[in-house]
Design brief:
Layout: H1 4-23, H2 32-50, H3 56-59
Helix pairs in contact: 1-2
Length: 62
């Protein structure tokens, strides 16, 4: 299980990933459904990462 500090880092990185997903696309607007899909994907990724052991090297291992 990830430590509190590691979870904080994960959340920040996921928010940055969201920012990249939104700004690297040529779309100016998104529907609520599109945003929900993006957020669901990021939430699933956070859940998967938070279940990895607490070793920092394991957080980014695939």
């Amino acid at each position: 299980m990830a430590t509190k500090n590691e979870r904080k880092i994960i959340r920040k990185s996921l928010l940055y990933e969201l920012r990249l997903m939104l700004t690297n696309n040529n779309k100016e607007t998104y529907t609520a459904n599109e945003l929900c899909t993006i957020l669901d994907t990021l939430a699933a990724a956070e859940e998967k990462i938070s279940k990895i052991s607490s070793k920092p090297s394991d957080i980014f291992a695939e």
